[in-house]
Amino acid sequence: MGVAGIIAFTYYPIVFLLVAVALRGLDPALEETARSLGLGGWQTFFRVVLPQLRPALLGAMLLVVLDALIEFDAFVGLKFQTFSFDVYAQYQLGFSASGAGALSFASIGLCLVLLFGEASLRGHANYTRVSQGARRVAARYELGRATVPVLVALAAVVAVSDGIPLGMLVHWSTQSSHAALASAGGNLKYLFPATVTSVEVGVAAAVVALALALPVSVAAVRHRGPVVTILERATYLSFALPDLVAAIALAYAASHYLRFLYGSFVLLVFAEGVLFLPFAVVALRATFGQLERSLEESARSLGSGPLTSFWRVTMPLARPGLVAALVLVFAFTLGDLATAQVLLPVDLYTLGTEFNTNSSTVAFAAAAPFAGVLIVLALIAAYLLMSRYGKVRTLAVR
User: Fold this and answer.
1) Which of 52, 72, 86, 258 has the most CB atoms less than 10 A away?
2) First CA to last CA across the chain, in angstroms?
3) CA distance 153 to 139
4) Which residues, 6+ apart, have CB-to-CB distance to 199 below 8 Å?
5) Cα–chain-centroid distance for residue 318?
6) What is the pLDDT of residue 228?
7) Residues 6+ positions from 160 with CB-CB distance below 8 Å
8) Per-block average pLDDT, block size 10, for the chain (398 residues)?
9) CA neighbor of 244 nearest in space, from 383, 391, 55, 89
10) Contact 174, 365 (CB under 8 A)
11) pLDDT at residue 152, rounded to an integer
12) Are 279 and 17 in contact (CB under 8 A)?
């Protein structure tokens, strides 16, 4: 139960951010219509709001399940043996590529079962308006007597998910010996270069994932057919293999067929972008599924071309989903260790690799600054995402 709780608090931002994007795109007129027809607050939520959140909820849950299946770094730190640990043991300890390959095929099979199960539950419906008129900004509800319990619950989530890690960093720094603190001070010279490299990899991987996810998401929303369905489902196969296996496969392919990419920054960025591509696909698919095509068609009737209409009408309305996709890929790239360990150029190091190097030798005081910067970068990314929601929505309405 302890491991499940830690993993739940690690992955809940995926569900939170994707559902928040979907909620921001809902039209309040639908809820008001349901209330005018006699439905209460809870009835309106379950019969009107919740069905519109189905693509985001099911997509987010699928990502959490798939990512938890191939998670390696967290389970190793928790001393908990999982499927990914067995694959790693076959590769690194047993020197058995065939055994690791067999386990990897089992992972792909399980991934396919989950993919088709999620697709059948989600269906092919898009939850968007068909009526005329402009959307309005959703009104905020007063919590009333529920204000204090809600704030206490949210504070408890923040205390567990952020307070405990930050508290441990402070504990490592204050309880370490003078020799450990001196060693930590010497490692600070690596902090800035590692931060720069981590940010560069995260931003570049987010851009790559967004560029790959954009056409797939638009096709999945606007076109139906087996080819489009297979294409969309194929993007999730990056979660079918543990990160270590995928990274080793890419390194092997580059060393034999694309030697100019082997050991390069470009290969690392491409691997991270493809690995976290499903985050971008789910965020964009949920967003594009809520946008009315009539707006783009109106632009076409006024003389704009297809690409111009899409860029000037659809893309501004999809900004919350675009930003959510960028933030999710950026944040999870920062914390990815297995891919960076295999594909990172020899003259570079990231916050994750430096943290792992120091923590693996029980030098927690030296590892604390790198973990602290990782947390700060993730918090900054999340703050920028949430603070931009209202401004983007207002600009879109205007």
Assistant:
1) 52
2) 48
3) 23
4) 377
5) 17
6) 83
7) 9
8) 71 81 78 85 86 83 78 61 64 57 69 73 59 58 84 87 78 61 62 90 94 90 80 79 76 85 89 90 84 79 83 84 87 84 85 80 76 85 67 43
9) 89
10) no
11) 92
12) no
Structure tokens at 239: 């979660």
Report the largest interatomic distance among the alpha carbons of the chain, rounded to a whole angstrom.
73
Q: How far apart, in whole angstroms, are the C-alpha atoms of residue 24 and residue 320?
A: 8
What pTM value is reported for the model?
Answer: 0.76
Q: Are 19 and 56 in contact (CB under 8 A)?
A: yes
